[in-house]
Design goal:
By secondary structure, this protein is mainly α. It has two domains: 85 residues, no CATH class; 30 residues, no CATH class. It starts with 8 loop residues before the first helix and ends in an 11-residue tail after the last helix. The mean pLDDT is 83.
């Protein structure tokens, strides 16, 4: 789920990914030298290149929405399963979170939210 979050986006895409760079406005497709374009795009006209990048950006947005929805379903399922078990804190995630929370408390840090699953 990290790479689907805003914080993980750069981790997933890096800083030189064409579709994201054009869609975010960091660069203009017209400013990219032909030699730096992916090989399949080099034979396309400028209009076809723009259309292809736009299509890829729209598809990526739809996929990101699906990923976010599935991630939410997963979190909801895990939360309901934990409630069904009586919120027992016996998962590895909860054990690690508890240790980190205790160690952080000794350093003056306070985590007031429960572990996310």
């Amino acid at each position: 789920m990290f790479n689907a979050s805003a914080a993980g986006k750069d981790n997933l895409l890096g800083d030189s990914e064409l579709v994201d760079a054009v869609a975010s406005g960091r660069i203009e497709l017209a400013d990219v030298p032909e030699a730096e374009l992916p090989a399949p795009m080099r034979s396309l006209s400028k209009e076809e290149q723009v259309a292809l990048v736009k299509q890829k950006a729209e598809k990526r947005e739809l996929l990101n929405e699906k990923i976010a929805a599935i991630g939410k379903q997963r979190n909801d399922y895990l939360s309901s399963e934990l409630k069904a078990r009586g919120d027992k804190i016996d998962s590895l995630d909860d054990q690690i979170y508890g240790v980190v929370k205790a160690q952080a408390g000794k350093k003056g840090l306070d985590y007031d939210k429960p572990a996310a699953h």
